[in-house]
């Protein structure tokens, strides 16, 4: 009997993401409908940028053709080199700094943005080799980048972001509006 109860508890245990990170959202990024981003904020200030589950890339069984961290001729997020305890050398990003461009097999292209100000600590090079990680595990292995906000800004970075409840409200209003037009 004890074994059954123990297994049941394990099945209902929160994931590492749910246990240690707070989810924040940016809906309709740069005015583009449904292009939602998710920011996972750890208690140590580090933020992981991912796609929100409502992002078009994760809908309708899309497949990814390419992921490009080359933002412009002179700027590649892959050239980001960070060193030391204070993470010197990381590229400084603003809220709307592009992180990468993702092209789907139907040729639609999406730009993924940083959503917050801070230093770029790393980009996920694993998704270049295995883009399906982005589709299968967007909150874990399929993350886009890791950003460290300035210490003095770490409390205020969430001011322009939506909490999970606020985001769910936006998504439900969006689906209500779509069902009315159908």
UniProtKB/TrEMBL annotation:
GO terms for cellular component: dendrite; filopodium tip; growth cone; lamellipodium; nuclear speck. Gene3D superfamilies: 2.40.50.100. InterPro entries: Abitram, GCV_H/Fam206, Single_hybrid_motif. It is found in: Cell projection, Dendrite; Cell projection, Growth cone; Cell projection, Lamellipodium; Nucleus speckle. Keywords: Cell projection, Nucleus. Belongs to the ABITRAM family. This is Protein Abitram. It comes from Amphiprion percula (Orange clownfish). The lineage of its organism: Eukaryota, Metazoa, Chordata, Craniata, Vertebrata.
């Amino acid at each position: 009997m004890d074994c059954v109860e123990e297994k049941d508890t394990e099945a209902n245990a929160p994931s590492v993401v749910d246990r240690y990170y707070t989810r924040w959202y940016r809906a309709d990024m740069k005015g583009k409908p449904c292009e939602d981003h998710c920011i996972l904020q750890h208690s140590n200030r580090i933020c992981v940028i991912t796609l929100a589950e409502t992002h078009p890339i994760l809908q309708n069984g899309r497949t990814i053709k390419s992921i490009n961290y080359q933002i412009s001729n002179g700027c590649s997020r892959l050239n980001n080199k960070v060193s030391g305890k204070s993470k010197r050398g990381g590229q400084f990003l603003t809220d709307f700094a592009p992180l990468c461009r993702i092209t789907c097999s139907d040729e639609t292209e999406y730009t993924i943005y940083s959503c917050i100000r801070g230093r770029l600590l790393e980009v996920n090079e694993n998704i270049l080799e295995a883009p399906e990680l982005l589709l299968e595990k967007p909150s874990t292995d399929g993350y886009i980048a890791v950003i460290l906000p300035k210490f003095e800004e770490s409390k205020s970075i969430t001011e322009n972001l939506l909490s999970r409840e606020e985001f769910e409200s936006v998504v439900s209003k969006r689906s209500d509006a779509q069902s009315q037009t159908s």
